[in-house]
Amino acid sequence: MEKKFKDSSYTITLCEGTTCTKNNSRKLREALEAEIARQGLSDKIRILISGCLGMCPKGPVMIVNPGYTIYGAVTPADIPELVEKHLTNNEPVARLVIDEDHLFNRFYRVYGDVNFFGKQMRITLRNCGVIDPESIEDYLAVRGYEALAKALSSMTPKQVVDEVKRSGLRGRGGAGFPTGTKWELTAQSADPLKYVICNADEGDPGAFMDRSAIEGDPHTVLEGMILGGYAIGASRGFVYIRAEYPLAIQRLEKAIADARRDNFLGANILGSGFSFDIEIRLGAGAFVCGEETALIHSIEGMRGMPTMKPPYPAVSGLFKKPTLINNVETWANIPVVIIEGAEWFSSLGTKTSKGTKVFALAGNVRNTGLIEVPMGTKLRQIIYDIGGGIPNRKKFKAAQTGGPSGGCIPAQFLDTEIDYESLAKIGSIMGSGGMIVVDENTCMVNLARYFLEFTQ
Q1: What residues does each domain of the chain span?
Q2: Which of 54, 95, 347, 440 has the lowest CB atom count within 10 Å?
Q3: Contact 419, 353 (CB under 8 A)
Q4: Which option is the CATH number for 10-118: 3.40.50.720, 3.40.50.1370, 3.40.30.10, 2.40.240.20?
Q5: pLDDT tens for each residue of 443-452
């Protein structure tokens, strides 16, 4: 009997980030492909493999379009029912739909209805779950490399630096130093040989922002680095990434190869006369190599040990040459700043902390995972609106931010706005974005001891 297919096509976005892969998303893909073929729907359905979608505990996560219906914890045994009902008869399988609010008597929920997604604003993660991270064509379809083309065709290097400076973007890897100022200092050096580095060596406990961003959208990081190279006059860049991130490395390698093939990397990029290339350097996982001078020594082939500053890397960095070093999240913001403009970017966030911030939400909270919110969002909103609150009716005790160098935010500061100055005022820091929530049963002495032991 011939199948009656109600819609002309569906796109299924299947998360194959590290957590979902661990939860057998690849076996799920195989089962999905086999069932779609068995039912004669191969020409009607596209399966798109994405990086981390953020809802890690619900994995494997799958989004069906049109409609943005989000399924979680799907197993290969669920596939025949899902294909038969949703993909053939347009009837979502309610029992598999992610809905932390018990559906509120609605049949199913879509992307914007789920608080975890609907309360966020994504810039760094804008393409994660939207494109195939291994397809440069997908990246181009969402304005990928448009910022690079704009800069090379209509902006001078100084204009690029000025745009980043006016945006108010601050470094997302630690203390929040103004990104444009760092770029300006590096650009002002008369040395003809300069370098660009992407610090993808996140080491804080519970942090997985860099890994997930690269797994889900490697080209946006590369584009940011190329723009940085153009702005300061560098011709070579390095991505320093942990060797224990195999999926991120694999996708980064493919992205670099594809960018070279299509002349977004290499000699005479887009016929502009500007040449720039990027290579990957693997780190051994030492926590200290997240510090920029230690990272630089590691790339040079030496022991990764920090050195006193000044001189700063902008003056004397890799191989004693002026070096521009930013982390993954900072680089991922650059293309958006150039496309949308400094005024648009600076309209987001607070007076002194512009844009958005990615957090790895972990610990005693219902919805752990990767989130991105505007600077100035209150801690209460992150934990209760996006995170779903504390499980098992426990009371919130504290949120640890900033990794071993950070601090713990107790309950009386739940309404603190998350920005650089507000966190510093109450004794913590933004750090790279790890946020560990603890409940009333957690011993704070043990937590402090854990972080002290971690740094030894």
Answers
A1: 10-118, 136-346, 356-455
A2: 95
A3: yes
A4: 3.40.30.10
A5: 999 988 988 8
